[in-house]
Give the backbone structure.
Amino acid sequence: MKDVLDIVKNVERIYDSNTSLSVLKDFERVLDELDIYVYENWDEGEVCEGPTIDRHWITCSFMWPQEKMPDPMGGKRLLDYDCKVKMGKETVLVPRKIRKETDIRPGTKKGKLDRKPIWIVEIMMPTSLIGEVYGGYQGIPPQTPNGDEAQQADTGAAAETPPAEAAV
């Protein structure tokens, strides 16, 4: 059973730590590169736990409302890249909106807690996979507007230089 308060604390921890935020962005980049978001409802997931960084694995848990179950084929696609995926049903404690006096917890001014069914997907991704995808971005030369023209200008300028001046 998850609690909204724990989820909020996890998100605060992510934003307070540059490392956690960058790891989570890299994790999301891998999911995007592997085209996981083309599967139904995968783009609607919310982080509920993680990222947990181990020596060889990075683990994150995501949650969806019960009526928006993520397509299991997305998880199956991750298995082809040596990821470990666990899917399951759970509940999350959500405070009730106070509309009448019976919605208040006795002795407090806070709303009662309701259990809402959710889907949890825990993904363990190898750090090597994140490094490969990140390395692919590092190997791409930066794109400049009209890059072909800039290359032609560079090669043209070198061709126009007389060989006697180039040797000096």
